[in-house]
Design a protein that fits this description.
Blueprint: E1 6-17, E2 20-32, E3 37-41, H1 48-55, E4 63-68, E5 71-72, H2 78-87, E6 89-92, H3 106-115, H4 126-132, H5 138-141, H6 150-161, E7 168-172, H7 180-195, E8 199-203, H8 207-212, E9 215-220, E10 223-229, E11 232-235, H9 249-252, E12 259-263, E13 269-273, H10 280-289
Parallel strand pairs: 3-8, 3-9, 6-7, 7-8
Antiparallel strand pairs: 1-2, 1-4, 4-5, 9-10, 10-11, 12-13
Helix pairs in contact: 3-6, 6-7
The protein binds adenosine-5'-diphosphate and magnesium ion.
Adenosine-5'-diphosphate binds at residues 15, 17, 22, 24, 42, 44-50.
Length: 290
């Protein structure tokens, strides 16, 4: 397995519905280095799952660029995307059931996930993958998904995502709706994948997962809002100069506040609210969005 990096440049995704469009991603700039582990966090509806589905090649960008390793996903054909998923990218969608065939045993599910792949000699045997996720005992690997506990089912879904020894693992809320014991088991399995050098991108609300990844990237309103490193949060300057300030800034500066931006000699930047225009911007901003 060679770890695979991801590059997003001005990535836009629009769900086109009858009569109106939903802009789910409004220009995401993000670089994930090969071998890095990233937690995507942020409020519900922010665009996290959409971003993950784009990286998985399950959706195509509406605009902007997206590279997954050597693959240019804005240009790739359906066949190329399929080939990418069968060799380079493992995907664990939200809800274990969506990743598993209900009438196959755990081991058969892993073998089946591999069928699409070109036979590669270097692929580890399914039992090795099941050992990694802690499902290798003969009794468990013969069970069907319905016969597993929720935590085991989630780990079986992880094994399926890992079936082709991908360089990039994408997982959407792998620990949601699990009790603490099951959560810790899934956490340990994801951690083992990360430690093996695979690039890992996890959408999560679980701070424990976030703490174990190299980076935490907050998605807000379809953009990268903030970055966390070692427990410290940073705002990120977008390529167009835009910055998402932390929401607590709204407690001291109302939307529409005019800020004077001045670069200090020591390299810090001062944001000074203008007192002269108390409410001027707030209404305007709203109108502009219509
Ligand atoms: P998150 O995973 O951060 O909760 P999503 O990526 O699921 O966010 O959703 C981002 C936005 O796109 C939301 O406004 C959501 O309502 C919308 N959305 C998500 N999936 C669909 C879909 N299949 N059809 C239409 N709109 C969608
Ligand atoms: Mg989601």
């Amino acid at each position: 397995m060679n770890p695979i990096g991801v590059t997003c440049r001005g990535l836009v995704f629009i769900y086109r519905l009858e009569g109106y469009d939903v802009v789910a991603l409004a220009g995401v700039d993000l670089d994930i280095e090969a071998g890095q582990s990233v937690a995507l966090v942020g409020p519900s509806g922010a665009g996290k799952s959409t971003l993950l589905s784009l990286m998985a090649g399950l959706l195509s960008p509406s605009a902007g660029r997206l590279f997954v390793g050597e693959h240019d996903l804005a240009k790739a054909t359906a066949a190329e995307l399929q080939a990418m998923r069968s060799t380079d990218v493992g995907v664990m969608l939200q809800g274990a059931a969506r990743n598993l065939l209900p009438y196959l045993s755990v081991e058969q599910n892993v073998r089946f996930a591999r069928n699409g792949a070109v036979a590669r000699a270097e692929l580890p045997p399914p039992r090795e993958i099941l050992t990694l996720v802690g499902l290798a005992d003969p009794d468990r690997l013969r069970r069907t998904p319905g016969e597993l506990t929720p935590g085991e089912r989630q780990r079986a879904a992880l094994a399926v995502a890992l079936a082709n020894n991908p360089g990039l693992l994408l997982a959407d809320e792998p620990t949601s709706q699990l009790d603490i014991g099951a959560r810790d088991e899934v956490l340990a399995a994801v951690e083992a994948v990360r430690a093996a050098g695979t690039t890992v991108v996890v959408v999560t609300h679980d701070p424990e997962i976030g703490a174990r990844m190299n980076r935490t990237v907050t998605i807000r309103d379809g953009r990268v809002g903030a970055e966390g490193r070692s427990g410290v949060d940073y705002s990120v300057i977008g390529r167009d100069g835009s910055v998402h300030l932390p929401t607590e800034v709204l407690d001291v500066m109302a939307p529409g506040t005019l800020l004077r931006v001045s670069v200090q000699p020591d390299g810090t930047v001062l944001l000074t609210p203008s007192e002269a225009v108390p409410h001027a911007g707030a209404g305007l901003g709203r109108e502009d969005q219509r």
